[in-house]
Every structure is written in C-alpha cells, then in structure tokens.
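Hypothesis: this fold can be encoded by more than one sequence.
Test: take the structure tokens below, design a sequence, compare later.
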C-alpha cells in the first residue's frame, strides 16, 4: 500500500476515533504511545477506524451496537466501557444499550451480560445519562 494512502487512512482513523471516543481519549492514548505499542496503535487507527469505521454500508450507530454486543460476548470490560461512551455519542439511547445487553444475556450468558450491565451503568452514570 502506498504510504500516502496509509497516512490518509491514519488521519481519517484518528478523526473518527476522536469523534467516537472524544479528544481526551485520543490525547491520553497519544501520551501512552511508545516504541513498543506504536505498531498496534497505528494498526488500530489506520485499519480499524480509518478503513473499517469509515466504510459505507452501515452507519456508526449500527457499528457501535455491534461492538457493544461483541465486547460483551468477549468479556472485554475496558473496551466495552469506551464503546458504550461511543455508542451514546453515535446516537444510541440508554434504553437501547439496556436492550443490547439483555439480548447478549440470552446468547452469551448471564455472567457476561451481568458484568456488561455493571460497566454500562457506571459509564452511563458518569456521563450523566442515569441519575
């Protein structure tokens, strides 16, 4: 792949990541960048956000719904918390997050869904979406 295309994809990825997770998240991520982890950070920005999240076909809200469900199934609490924030930024409602997580309970089990509900409640309270 030409370097120019990679740079464009990375710039697109950083923009989408900032829109999804917030500028503070990107700034924190940048501060943690070092010679060891930069390859995975570059991959995430270029491929995940720059090439996949930027595609047509399904919108960001739909991608967020998919990611919340998958991260629940995979039991990835740190990433789930970020993607719940992103889902809210992409137009999901509290009721939709609740229904997504309830759906995962049927297919992924109560332990995974229960942990996801705990994480979601914490994130939603912190974001002012729950009282």
């Amino acid at each position: 792949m030409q370097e120019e295309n990679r740079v464009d994809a990375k710039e697109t990825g950083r923009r989408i990541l900032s829109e999804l997770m917030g500028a503070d998240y990107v700034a924190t991520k940048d501060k943690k960048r070092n010679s060891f982890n930069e390859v995975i950070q570059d991959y995430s920005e270029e491929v995940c956000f720059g090439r996949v999240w930027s595609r047509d076909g399904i919108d960001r809200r739909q991608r967020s719904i998919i990611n919340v469900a998958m991260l629940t199934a995979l039991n990835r609490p740190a990433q789930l918390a970020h993607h719940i924030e992103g889902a809210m930024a992409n137009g999901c409602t509290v009721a939709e997050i609740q229904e997504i997580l309830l759906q995962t309970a049927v297919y992924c089990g109560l332990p995974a869904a229960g942990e996801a509900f705990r994480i979601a409640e914490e994130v939603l309270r912190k974001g002012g979406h729950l009282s």
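DSSP finds seven helices and no strands in the chain. The longest helix spans residues 3-21.
Hypothesis status: open.
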